[in-house]
Write a structure and sequence with these properties.
177 residues; disordered N terminus; single chain; Porin; elongated; eight-stranded antiparallel beta barrel; mainly beta; 5% helix
């Protein structure tokens, strides 16, 4: 199975040895802006924490814990405001081991969505757990990270809970040995 993964990534089996350049464990903290996608979507805030383990110098696996808000302006929809908490397994692939390290990444897990509308007289609150994915890209330098991502959630109760985010973060641990 490991050989199939190595072939799929286009690398040899030696690249799956433990990280030689970087410390194996780090915890990332990040915050930024989120934008609801779809008609009437507006910006809000996002914060996240993600412990990670480096399999080698170019591949890390982690668990992202994130909360984000989203607003929809001028829409007659069930939720004018949405909040979500997501729990995703992530994998980051770094393209080099230089001081500026671009990466591409994918996360998959569960997003808990809460939506409400203060403008409607029936003030409906909806809560639903949905399957979610998050492709992302960015770069790290030193102990700092800048990334963009697009969170894709399966629809629930007619809600489109997808959102894009731009996050700036730092991490403890990790770094060069």
């Amino acid at each position: 199975m490991m050989l199939l993964v190595a072939l799929a990534l286009g690398v040899n089996a030696k690249s799956f040895a433990q990280s030689e350049t970087f410390k194996a464990f780090k915890v990332e903290f990040s915050a930024g802006l989120s934008w609801a996608t779809g008609k009437g979507g507006a910006g809000d805030a996002v914060i996240a924490m993600e412990p990670k383990f480096a399999i080698n110098d170019k591949l890390t696996f982690g668990l992202r814990l994130e909360t984000a808000g989203r607003s929809y302006k001028g829409q007659d929809r069930l939720g004018e405001q949405e909040f979500s908490g997501s729990y995703m397994a992530t994998g980051d692939y770094y393209f080099n081991t230089n001081g500026l390290r671009p990466f591409a990444s994918l996360g998959a897990g569960v997003m808990s969505v809460s939506a409400f509308n203060t403008e409607r007289t029936d003030f409906v609150i909806v809560e639903k757990d949905v399957l979610a994915f998050a492709p992302r890209a960015g770069f790290e330098t030193g102990h700092f990270r800048l990334g963009v991502e697009y969170n894709i959630a399966t629809k629930s109760y007619g809600l489109n809970s997808n959102y894009a985010s731009l996050k700036f973060g730092f991490f403890l641990g990790g770094g060069r040995k």
